[in-house]
Amino acid sequence: MTKKAQMEVMGLMVIVLILVFVILLALKFFLVPKTTSEEMQRQSIQASNMLNAIIRSNTEDGSTIAKKIVECYNSANIDSIACQFMKNCYPLGGQCDTNKPSFLRDVLRNVFSKKKYRLEFTTTSTANILPIYGIDACNADEATITGSATVSVSPQITAKIKLCVQPQQSIS
Amino acid sequence: MNKKAQVQFMEMIFVLLILVIIIFIGMIIYYSFLNKGLKEKSERFTEIDSIILTDSVASMAELTHETGVINSVKLFSLADILTSTDSASEKYREYYRSFFGNDKKVTLEIIYPKPSGPRSNDNLDCTAEDPARNFNTNYVIDDNCKFFTIYNPVINQARKSGSEIRKNPVSVYYPLTNQYKIGILTVEVYKFD
Whole-prediction pTM value? Predict the structure, then answer.
């Protein structure tokens, strides 16, 4: 190969390298997920506010949500009357009765409409009968937790909310 | 000019043309990134502004029962000041105008337990207008109040190009019944042309 041809090949390689560098830089801008520590902080504050409002709130019959959770836990049967309030759905002809209050529909979906969330109550006992809301979300290993909060309901029960994004999904 | 020189001249012009095209494409990409960055920054500032306002409202002494818990009766007191035309309370209205800003509407929606009064399905906003009458009828006598407007600026609707909404759950205290409800504090930040 002549010296001129060698120089031209070198020039071509430099151009290719510059192009690769520019493409990598552009990809970095396009593909970086929007999850930032600020966003996680904000979502954790939102989760914490939600949990505090839930635990403090009264129910339609004048009791409190915290009391209802403890009563349900003490009944040791998810189908008992004490646990009815916590049910996601009252069946009506194969569908959910939208006239009956639903904690999931009225509160959680209202606040976290576009987000994936999971509200769970963990207990000190091994037989945990308390319901989990948003059961399919924030559970898989590949879900990225973007905010979480924990509040003690009673000495035996702890409530925890997790907000998350599944892969390929941005925080909204 | 001989043929070889002509070819070399053409080659040089071709290289220059490609260089100009590459520079032009680079400039377009650079400005699109710059524009996108500016838009993102503007949205970020609006978001920070609304987050600060949501948290501030949930801890305003004139609205809260305790930190993070809004007292529903105090919402009527604030609405009384903001909707009155009394010149004596003008300095307070001026204070709240500067506090909330002229581009943000702040509302509270009660989501659980839902109001149980006979007009609870009417989506009544009890502080938007005539808060004193609403307090006596739709708050004290019947539990009809689903919405409360905390601040609603007077804006030029023709200039409004859109809005961004931020929601934050809060606990709302009802002192007359000693009950707590769950509410959503919404800050709507208007965008103008």
Answer: 0.75
